Amino acid sequence: MSIGKNETMRVSQVMLPLDRFPVIDEREILKEALDAMGRSRLGIACIVDGANKLLGIITDGDVRRKLLKVQKPFSAFFVDDAIVHAIKSPITICPTDTLRHAVELMGEKQIWDLPVVNEKNELVGLLHLHPAVKALLGIDE
Question: Rounded to the nearest 10 degrees, how much is the dihedral formed by the CA atoms of 99, 103, 105, 109?
Fold first, then answer.
């Protein structure tokens, strides 16, 4: 199936802006990260430093796997810094990459969200799978 003109769409055209998903400081505790994820209704939070450089991500799945793997009281997790439980080298995409490439990468890696970073590794957005696929298919929201 050809998706025609949507072949040239860029990540920047579909990505969520910084104010539409959880972006937390490296010193935030896990409970605050989970609260932010709940408010946004996304299963991801991006962790940045003071210069907005991406340090890592934390997802619902990361938290679930950590809870099952690490032997410590459940309540003790909530006061840990979120970065302790984060993926510190997440898969990312550039805003100028094609949307098709991004969706193929998401499928290959079996992930729902891709942090979008510029050439300085500064977080500029988040690509979520559902709006990306809708844009490729030409489905209006």
Answer: 150
